[in-house]
């Protein structure tokens, strides 16, 4: 039986309005297709009240945290700065509850872009609200102006990391973000950085479950990049180890 992968839902913004009826629709189809290709059964978990997290995580074998809008800065002790983009506190609270429950149950987590940042905040870390606040003299282009299916800048991956088991230790990845991890949560360890020193991946440290976060978007690259597909395969294979009996 295929492992069921819970995929976090997204909210559609139009100015200050939120179209609640489209939460599921606006989970990118590429996440769904990537999980299907490597043998998983995707189940989109829409934004909901945090109390629903326990029931939702009881239905799935692993959690895929997706990309999207910015994260509520008050969650890491800051007020919103002028450069921050759209953020939606109900989504943040919903997904933090999912992360907490997944970790409590020991279920694997793959976190992508915003997803990685959200996991870091959920575990006590913080973010740069915008690249303009990063103290790096030669900050690379992290919001790329090239086809999103193609790599943009290079990252260096720790050779002993889980990520290195499916990726080259130097890899060119795509990049579609303007926020960055600042303070790393104690339960996470950094496993790759871009050439300008920005954090590009993290893995769980003494968390009791498999946890891997990447700052780029492998769901946009997997059809042309075997290593990106291998990352999803690694995750789905991990979920099979403690698959829910159905």
Largest sheet: 9 strands, mixed
Order of helices and strands: EEEHEHEHEHEEEEEEEH
Counting copies of identical and different chains, the oligomeric state is single chain
In the CATH hierarchy, what is the superfamily?
Class I glutamine amidotransferase (GATase) domain
Count of runs of 4 or more consecutive helical residues: 5
Count of individual domains: 1
Q: Give the rounded overall mean pLDDT.
A: 91
How are the strands of the biggest sheet laid out side by side?
4-1-5-6-13-12-11-8-9
- Assess the beta-strand content as a share of residues: 15-25%
Radius of gyration: 17 Å
> What helical percentage do the residues reach?
10-25%
Low-confidence stretches: 13-25
CATH architecture: 3-Layer(aba) Sandwich
Which fold name corresponds to the CATH topology? Rossmann fold
Organism: Listeria aquatica
Protein name: Gamma-glutamyl-gamma-aminobutyrate hydrolase family protein
GO molecular function, one term: gamma-glutamyl-gamma-aminobutyrate hydrolase activity
Keywords: Hydrolase
General description of the model:
The protein has 246 residues and is an alpha/beta fold. It has one domain: Rossmann fold (3-Layer(aba) Sandwich), CATH 3.40.50. The protein has five helices and 13 strands. The strands form three sheets. Strands 4-1-5-6-13-12-11-8-9 form a nine-stranded mixed β-sheet, sandwiched between helices. It has a two-stranded antiparallel sheet with strand order 2-3. A two-stranded antiparallel ribbon has the order 7-10. α3 (89-105) links the parallel β5 (62-65) and β6 (109-112). α3 crosses α4. The protein is globular. It starts with a strand and ends in a 7-residue tail after the last helix. The relative contact order is 0.18. The model is unreliable at 13-25 (pLDDT under 50).
């Amino acid at each position: 039986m295929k492992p069921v992968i819970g995929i976090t839902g997204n909210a559609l913004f139009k100015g200050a309005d939120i179209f609640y009826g489209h939460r599921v629709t606006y989970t990118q189809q590429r996440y769904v297709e990537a999980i299907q290709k490597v043998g998983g059964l995707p189940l989109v978990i829409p934004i909901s009240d945090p109390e629903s997290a326990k029931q939702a995580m009881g239905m799935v074998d692993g959690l895929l945290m997706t990309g999207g809008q910015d994260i509520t800065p008050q969650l890491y002790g800051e007020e919103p700065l002028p450069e921050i983009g759209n953020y939606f506190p109900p989504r943040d609270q919903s997904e933090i509850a999912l992360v907490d429950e997944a970790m409590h149950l020991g279920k694997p987590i793959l976190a992508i872009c915003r997803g990685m940042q959200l996991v870091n905040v959920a575990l006590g870390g913080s973010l740069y609200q915008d690249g303009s606040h990063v103290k790096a003299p030669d900050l690379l282009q992290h919001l790329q102006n090239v086809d999103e299916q193609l790599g943009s800048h290079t990252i260096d991956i720790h050779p002993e990391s889980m990520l290195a088991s499916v990726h080259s230790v130097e890899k060119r990845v795509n990049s579609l973000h303007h926020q960055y991890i600042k303070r790393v949560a104690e339960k996470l360890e950094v496993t790759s950085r871009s050439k300008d020193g920005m954090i590009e991946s993290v893995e769980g440290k003494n968390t009791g479950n498999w946890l891997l976060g990447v700052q780029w978007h492998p769901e946009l690259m997997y059809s042309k990049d075997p290593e990106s597909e291998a990352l999803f395969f690694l995750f789905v294979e991990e979920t099979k180890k403690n698959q829910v009996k159905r």
